[in-house]
Amino acid sequence: KQLCSWTAKDIQSFITRVGVQQSSRDIFAEKQIDGYLLLACTENELKDYFQMNNRKVRQMLIENVIQTIHRERQTLPQWHYEAKKTKGKNDYVYIIYDPEDHSIASEVSNFLKDKKFRVFTHNIRYGKNKHEFVALNGPVMARTKDVIFLLTAKSCRSTFTFHELTLAEWFEKPIVTVYLEHVWTNMRSSIRALLADYPSVDFIHQSLHESLTILHAYLRPQMLSSEEPDDYVQKLKQTIRPLASIATYNSNLKPKPSCSTNENGSANHRFVYLSYSKTSEKWNVIHAVERLIFV
Fold it and tell me: Which CATH number fits domain 3-75: 1.10.150.50, 3.50.30.10, 1.20.5.320, 1.10.3720.10?
């Protein structure tokens, strides 16, 4: 078990072995200090708040924490360090979909393969937990340039797609949503906020072939040469719109996040996706925020 996942009881055993005096251990227990909170403690806090007045004991505790983290990094697979540095290759795409949507995923995959794309999806083995699932699919996704998300009633609530989408956002991959079903209000609020401003292709009100052609045009904009008719190019540009725009227009719904009104009285919807990185110890704000309101 990683130090950040240690319980308050684990911490008590740990600081006892290090030689922390009983009065300080009682304060740790009273404040329910677990592994995550211990990692956030500074030496001054150990002295001021936990009454660890012996400098040698404080340094021993800090040194033991550092050694524990070092051992973890030596024994656990650290795939994300190299994966984060990997540059996605052109014409490499990763499709995110729920296993029950395999049929439409195959249609999209086969179409893109015919267009000379290399197509990747999640591993057939899901792993025993979230960490194994992400470790299996992370290095593969890192090699791709674009990520395609098939939005259906199943995928909008799927745990697997949730992990893959947040992983794609962490990799800073451009995500395009294939809008297959009216499920805007059924989506996880965090995923709705994450995808709201990303482009989407409406597969509901067009034929499958036409929708796939538009998706192809988005992935390879260079195919729209100057020889293409202007009305055709304009139609393609109008068809590829932010997911929130397509979902709201098709369903005549107002998104749940609070909205502000501009001078003309029209609503200017803002969406925000927030995540906290334990590695960099900072908040990651993906989209611009003018005003954050909890609803």
Answer: 1.10.150.50
